[in-house]
Design a protein that fits this description.
The complex is a heterodimer of chains A (about 200) and B (about 575). Chain A has about 200 residues and is mostly helical. Chain A has a single domain, classed as Four Helix Bundle (Hemerythrin (Met), subunit A) (Up-down Bundle), CATH 1.20.120.80. Chain A is built from 8 helices and no strands. In chain A, helix 4 packs antiparallel against helix 5 and helix 5 packs antiparallel against helix 8. The radius of gyration of chain A is 19 Å and the shape is elongated. The termini of chain A are far apart. Chain B has a single domain, classed as Cytochrome C Oxidase, Chain A, CATH 1.20.210. In chain B, strands 1-2 form a two-stranded antiparallel ribbon. In chain B, helix 13 packs antiparallel against helix 14 and helix 14 packs antiparallel against helix 15. The chains are: A mainly alpha (about 200), B mainly alpha (about 575).
Chain lengths: ~200, ~575
Amino acid sequence: MEVPYIVKEREDTGLINSKLGIWVFLASEIMLFGGLFSAYIFLRLAAAPGEFAHWSAELSVPLATVNTLVLISSSVSMVMAWASLKLNDFPKYRMYMGITLLCALIFLVIKYFEYTGKFHHDIYPSSSTFMAIYFTLTGLHGIHIIGGMIVMLYFWLPVGSKMWDSQPEHFANRVEALGLYWHFVDLVWIFLFPVLYLL
Amino acid sequence: MSSKSHNHDHHDEGFIRKYIFSVDHKVIGLQYGITSLLFLLFGFSLMAIMRWQLAYPGTPIPILGFLFGESGTLAPEQYNSLGAMHGTIMVFLGVVPLAVGAFGNYIVPLQIGAIDMAFPKLNAASYWSYFVGGVIMISSFFMPEGAARSGWTSYPPLSVFENGQTFWLISMVFLITSSLLGSMNFIVTIVQLRAPGLTWMRLPLFVWSQFVTSFLLVLAFPPLEAAAILQLMDRVAGTSFFLPSGLVLSGEIVDVAGSGSPLLWQHLFWFLAHPEVYVLILPAMGIVAEILTNNTRKPLWGFKSIVYSMVFLGFCSFIVWAHHMFLTGMGQAMSAFFQTTTMIISIPSIVILTSYFLSLWGGSIRFNTPMLFALAFLPMFGIGGLTGLPLGLAAADIYLHDTYYVIGHFHYVVAPGTIFALFAGIYYWFPKITGKKMNEMLGKLHFWPSLIFMNGIFMPMFIQGLAGVSRRLADGGESYAHASGVLQWNEFMTTSAFLLGISQIPFIINLIMSIFSGEKAGRNPWDSTTVEWAAPSPPLAHVNFDSEITVHHSAYEYSVPDSKKDFIPQTEH
């Protein structure tokens, strides 16, 4: 026997298990980043006036803007990947998932150059409270990107996507759950960008 | 359900798949149960060593003294380390995994008539994450300077300057991950996998309590994870999230970036740790509800108000955290807010406890072992709860903060409260799990001494605390004149603690002996109404039930007028 409601919705709740599961997981993620954002607010309020703005000026707004666009594009291609599955077009799914994966990689490469640029100027997490929270928040966000990429790669390569042949609906649901997670990771960046770079 | 999966049911699984890396919720529940009971025993032993030192300062510790250097006594750092690990192990590795991981995993799917949890593999991942976290925590004892020693609260700045703390933090990340995976799973399981006919108001209270608990874990633990990440950064990356500028350590200004805030940690920590208190107590309340109604043979008084109170309790537990911080000088407005919410949150607790007491009225009570533990829970939790009220009021708390009064208060809630409820649950569900009943005589030999010695340990703490004796003193307060009048209690408490340890021997014997030679129990030895008793004892591997489960009744239909038996099982048509 198998656990029910993996593919078909339960009538009275209108949900499949994985969709509810991923939403509960995202709620916990909101609390995780929420805790860190409130730490940011707490520390900023306690800091000397202008201290945060001074250190924030060290960051590169153009690079972060490019990264924002890259991530937004990846969200769009993620939706397209899922939609392609719903339209029964597997080759297109592979293309769009590949684009999403590529966007995530571009984001990380740009982030790598940002980080090393700071290290070359002897700026480290220990340099100031702002840099500490900057590296912590973007680092944790980066780990979430990597986590997403691992799952994307699994669903892109035949080892994960062969499920499409035997259980297409189940596979599409998995991609949908991954998509929800990915949009959340993008959304976190949408908050990080103004909070760290612009304010 | 795919048709080809049917053939897989009858595959023989190897020993490792079946008992070690199993995905069956029952095996995982037992793994959680055995591991957490061992951790409880270990945490208890740490406390026993500390209590020896408090009663007989300067006298070498018997048997284990060689572990602590030549003197055979605890140095203050070692005492702190044992205290920190006692708290951490008891809360994060003992009681919560037993209440949620073990009981929740084993009982919840059975009580809702499901074949397993919604995500069996995640469930196994949750246990193994807990296991790894536990191993890391224990291994920190072998660090050059020993394990973490800043209490289970790990307040910076002190905690940031200890090597053992790194292990504590890494271990916490694993434990938090474990509880996130577990509680996500519970929420989905309870929402999605209820048997046909099992509507929300027909759910047993144990399921309700696990449901609310899971939300607390999902929403309250991540901020502590955030805090643990920040403290880990402070330890390994040289940041100063929690270190203020101009911090002086051993007479010298510490070379750190500074401008951090130790208070930030306290806020993030207590944002978890207050809901955590309800994580400790809610499953206990759920277990007690099951056992009370079963052994009074009448419906629970105020079922709906208990459900609403549990939900309200869960919600309110998120807005009371700073009542742990009245002494930090956070300001009167903040204190006023948090002491008001603290008074409000006591109302649902009292509604629940009152309903339990009223449920006893006019019942024909069966005084078996699970019922004795459940009955003892009521006054013990009552004492624990009521002694908490003065701590929730800023004015009284300023005097009582960090004294033994606080220790007495929360131990009454957790030790003779939650742990008694967990014992009750073990005696109650043992027949379902093994197919055998536990021995009543040994059960009573376990209960009565435990009740007496629990009070022997914790009641004098109120006396000492009211006299102003501080907690976390390696010499128990000998160096303070104001403590001299009440320190004679230390020997009494230590003796009680050792006798409490001895009182657990009948339990351990009972647990092992009954598996082999216990009286055979059928499906429903307690004449209970809830769904888990419709399964064979023990329930079938992977599918639990041998018949289709449909629910036709509310949870506790005992002594219904004009019915032939004094109970109507939920599954009966």
